[in-house]
Amino acid sequence: MSQRLCEGRVVIVTGAGRGIGREYALQLAEHGAKVVVNDLGSARDGSPGSEEIQPAEAVVREIRARGGEAVANLESCADWKAAGRMVEQAVDTFGRLDGLVNNAGILRDRMLTNMTEEEWDAVINVHLKGTAGPSHHASVHWKNRSKAGEADVAGRIINTTSVSGVYGNVGQTNYGAAKAGIAAMTIIAARELQRYGVTVNAISPHAQTRMTEGLRERTPEERDIRDPRWIAPVVVWLASRESGQVSGRIIEAGGGLLVVMQGWNPGASADPVSDPRAIGPVITDLVARSRRNLGMSAQELDI
Fold first, then answer.
1. How many Å apart are CA 234 and CA 251, to the nearest integer?
2. Coil, helix or strand for 170?
3. Which of 24, 167, 175, 196 is an active site residue?
4. Fewer Cβ close by (within 10 Å): the C or N end of the chain?
5. Residue 52, H or E segment
6. For the chain, how are helix, strand and coil distributed in percent, rounded to 5?
């Protein structure tokens, strides 16, 4: 297949210095995209990194060595003004912006009883605000183009949620809350931005990266199916013009899975009850007749 899905399109990828984000950037460039590679170069928990060469710069060199076009951005996507400068850099360097992949993230896993305010704020800031800021500035860019008369803006936002947010995972109240918020943001933003020709979707990825190292031992075969290369094709297609009919969806990918998730669904119902003394048996019965929430231990979902 010689067709390059993102030929000439300009795409920002946050957290693209390593792991899944790096694979997104490489495959987007392979399919003709001009890529803004954003990465602070921080450690898994968000603390300063120690590499001699910034990971974003290393990915840019790799893309250019393969004949692609890319530029590094070393600012924080969680800083609202810096997120605006990132969008400006894409437009100033390549003349436009067509896609945004919100991938940056950190982990500060802790049981709720032991979690500090700083651990909560750091994770919510990077994941949730780090998705909202770039999305805001990219959306303004596309809104302005649409209002200026551009008939087919074809803007694309691809967010990153997680089964930790959709199903829940012990020890990750901060991370799960952020990822659940991103899932909701995806659905709402898709409705708001459709008038401007912009789609918004989210990936729930399964991959073996530095974010998941040490959670459990895996065989070589298990590690292979969790390689980020199984996730990146979804992102490349969603960033292309071909995906215009898909918006507001959450797609679980990697780890041997490719699933469109269906969100919350109503269960059993009853007539309203006005007396709190009488409502207990009614709710107890409704719970008994409703499908249980999907569990999310590592064994149940094999994450």
1. 8
2. coil
3. 175
4. N
5. none
6. 45, 15, 40
Query: Is residue 290 within 8 Å of 164, Cβ to Cβ?
Result: no
Are residues 137 and 188 in contact, defined by beta-carbon separation less than 8 angstroms? no
Can 196 be counted among the known catalytic residues?
no
Question: pLDDT tens digit string along 59-91?
Answer: 999 999 999 999 999 999 999 999 999 999 999
State percent of the chain over pLDDT 70: 87
Contact (CB, 8 A) for 78 and 126: yes
pLDDT in tens, 121-163: 999 999 999 999 999 999 999 999 999 999 999 999 999 999 9
pTM of the model: 0.89
End-to-end CA distance of the chain: 32
Q: What is the pLDDT of residues 235-276, one digit of tens each?
A: 999 999 999 999 999 999 998 889 999 988 889 999 999 999
Using 50, 70 and 90 to split pLDDT, how confident is the model at 219?
A: low
Find, among 92, 93, 174, 78, the residue nearest to 135 by Cα. Answer: 78
- Domain chopping of the chain, boundaries: 10-264, 267-303
Distance of alpha carbon 225 from its chain centroid, rounded? 20
3.40.50.1820, 3.40.50.10050, 1.20.120.140, 3.40.50.720: CATH of 10-264: 3.40.50.720
**Sign, CA torsion 158/123/82/231:** negative
Q: How many residues are listed for the chain in this entry?
A: 303
Amino acid sitting at position 167: Y
The answer to whether 105 touches 127, Cβ cutoff 8 Å, is yes
